């Protein structure tokens, strides 16, 4: 493996480790996130090192800057995950008016449940939606052959559903009832 591939793999490894502990299991390495999901960077680096996963501040800065999904935000001496938490946090995102349509990437084996129940947040706080089909396709492809659903976000908003948009431009809402979904003809 060349040096560039090794560095890229290391970046992914650090990113996944950070996601796990800043979104889902901070207590596992002794971290306590504040009510908005922030933690001091020095505290994070020390906690990770104490649990056998060492990285430098430079590596952390690179992971934050290089992440194409902008999963993390740094503010001063603090860091947090931009969205996707399963632990209780209030990201403090104001309500936002969505575009007329948003998109959700999934896989064919989930369609029957989605037709019956709509989109649910599962182990997260919100359903994640994309502003474009390409992003939704990439999201769905992580679990198999992607199927992209259109969400009539304009109608949902008019009907009183609340939307938020994260710092990395992921649209969030509590649930999407089935009547607001448009399914592809074939999958």
TrEMBL record:
Is NAD a UniProt keyword of this protein? yes
- Molecular-function annotations in GO: NAD+ poly-ADP-ribosyltransferase activity; tRNA 2'-phosphotransferase activity
Instruction: Report if keyword Plastid is assigned.
Output: no
One BP annotation, GO: tRNA splicing, via endonucleolytic cleavage and ligation
Which Gene3D superfamilies has this protein been placed in? 3.20.170.30, RNA 2'-phosphotransferase, Tpt1/KptA family, N-terminal domain
Could you list this entry's UniProt keywords, alphabetically sorted. Answer: NAD, Transferase
Q: Cite the EC number.
A: 2.7.1.-
- Entry's Pfam families? PTS_2-RNA
Q: Which SUPFAM superfamilies match?
A: ADP-ribosylation
State the family it belongs to: Belongs to the KptA/TPT1 family.
Outline what the protein does: Removes the 2'-phosphate from RNA via an intermediate in which the phosphate is ADP-ribosylated by NAD followed by a presumed transesterification to release the RNA and generate ADP-ribose 1''-2''-cyclic phosphate (APPR>P). May function as an ADP-ribosylase.
Q: What is the protein name for this chain?
A: Probable RNA 2'-phosphotransferase
């Amino acid at each position: 493996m060349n040096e560039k591939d090794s560095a890229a793999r290391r970046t992914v490894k650090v990113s996944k480790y950070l996601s796990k502990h800043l979104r889902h299991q901070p207590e596992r390495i002794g971290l306590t996130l504040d009510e908005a999901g922030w933690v001091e960077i020095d505290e994070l680096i020390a906690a990770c090192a104490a649990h056998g996963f060492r990285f430098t501040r430079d590596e952390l800065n690179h992971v934050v800057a290089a992440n194409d999904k902008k999963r993390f935000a740094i503010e001063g001496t603090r860091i947090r995950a931009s969205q996707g938490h399963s632990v209780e946090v209030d990201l403090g995102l104001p309500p936002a008016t969505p575009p007329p349509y948003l998109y959700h990437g999934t896989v064919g084996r989930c369609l029957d449940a989605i037709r019956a129940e709509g989109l649910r947040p599962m182990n997260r706080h919100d359903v994640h939606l994309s502003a474009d089909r390409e992003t939704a396709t990439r999201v769905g492809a992580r679990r198999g052959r992607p199927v992209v659903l259109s969400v009539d976000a304009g109608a949902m908003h008019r009907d009183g559903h609340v939307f938020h948009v994260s710092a990395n431009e992921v649209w969030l809402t509590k649930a999407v009832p089935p009547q607001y979904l448009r399914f592809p003809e074939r999958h």
